[in-house]
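Researcher: Structure prediction, please.
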Amino acid sequence: MSVTTEGRDSVGQEESDLLTIRPLGAGQEVGRSCIMLEFKNKKIMLDCGIHPGLSGMDALPYTDMIEADEIDLLFLTHFHLDHCGALPWFLEKTTFKGRVFMTPATKAIYRWLLSDYIKVSNISTDELLYTEKDLEKSMDKIETINFHQEMDVGGVKFTAYNAGHVLGAAMFLIEIAGVKILYTGDFSRVEDRHLMAAEIPPVTPDVLISESTYGIHVHEKRELRETRFTSKVHDTVTRGGRCLIP
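Model: Predicted structure follows.
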């Protein structure tokens, strides 16, 4: 889809004045989140995940629709595979030479989670997307950004805000030529025992790109889930059983 920037008529409009949003994954599907933004000759990738129900090259975003070496920035919201699982492949197996940003916690857990994914893939499929060595090399290319830290790279301003959901999860507010785009990734507005609720950035974005997997689902209250869980654990232990908690 394309969005015309405010205050411009279509007559005499340059192509770079159109904000183009192109899902390379997670468009009318769950998994392989990956969205391309193009505006004012800047190209930005948002997340780079794999499809959890597929394997090998079939699990990747549709990166054949873009030129990897033309991408300026890549923002990764959190460490779940459907948002980050294709990143080592994209950094090590394509011509991408832009800059990659995520929060420090996301980078740390990304390393261990994908190492486990590689081990599982070694067992379950013959078509490995990347190796442990590729994962290690990708770590050197990842830069970190703290929550509320404002950065400017080549005229693209961006800030990370807390998204709740999991440790280190961020939403990114991106500004190009005065146009503000907020990309949420997965977020949670409910505070729990170890994470704060997602923040509401103190600005009004011109464009909002939001995760909507559970957009119409009403979650059970945390207190009810905790009670049910602890009751099951108590009943199991009382009967002499054992509880395995992943």
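Model: The two ends are 41 Å apart (CA to CA).
Researcher: Thanks, that helps.
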